[in-house]
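ok so i was messing around last nite and threw this chain in just to see what happens. nothing serious, just curious
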Amino acid sequence: MKTIDLQTQVTFERIMLATDFSPAAKVAQAYAVGLALHDSSTLEVATVVDLSLTLPSMDVISESALEALRHSSEEGLRRLAERISGVRVTRKVIEGFLPASLLVDEAVNTNADLIVLGTTSKHGLKKFVLGSTAEEVIRTAPCPVLTVGPHVPLPNFPVFFQRIVYATDLSSQTAKATDLALSLGQTSGAKVYLCHVITEDETSNQGDCEARSIASLKALIPESVHDWCDPECIVEHGKSSEAILALAKRVNADLIVLGARK
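result:
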């Protein structure tokens, strides 16, 4: 992910929507279109034909099934694109054995500024739709990735984020997401909450740990940000995922920004 100049509002000129035509993917599609309308972006809709699932052997039957899947994928993208108006849309059926790598390679080849895909709860919220593809895309993509969960309502058009929670473990690996969170806040005039979660095993001296965390969060904020925003630094306690979700619910956030580790 590139570091963003906070003097310039962030825009996504090229957005790639990865879809498997599932209900979760349809909600993600709405967000991709809404963001494309906001930024007058080019939107690429892409789907993967996973050969590891369709070609157990290269015989006549499997080849026939593959052709049928190719056709249905092309038709699915065509119908999807026809329902989108107001933005330039391109389509791509990608074929291969590693869906996550294929999607990331396509995003690199088209210079995508953002990848959008839908996720669904599976096996206790530990797996994503498209198998583990979404998680791998998040960890390997060179651009930001927007995942839209199964409980997210359809957005209003165009998409504006009004309350953003940026959760960070304060590691150098996740720090790049700070610029993105603050820049998105600047673009939409959003309230930005910077959050660090102190887990039970981090320290026994809660007061000192909170003070250090607040100081570290404030150090992430460039002085120029205070010209347009009053970001709020918050320290939560407990299990990270639960604490972040509780904060997002409490402030009625419409976006959570996280930095991923390789």
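not much to say yet. The first helix runs from residue 23 to 39.
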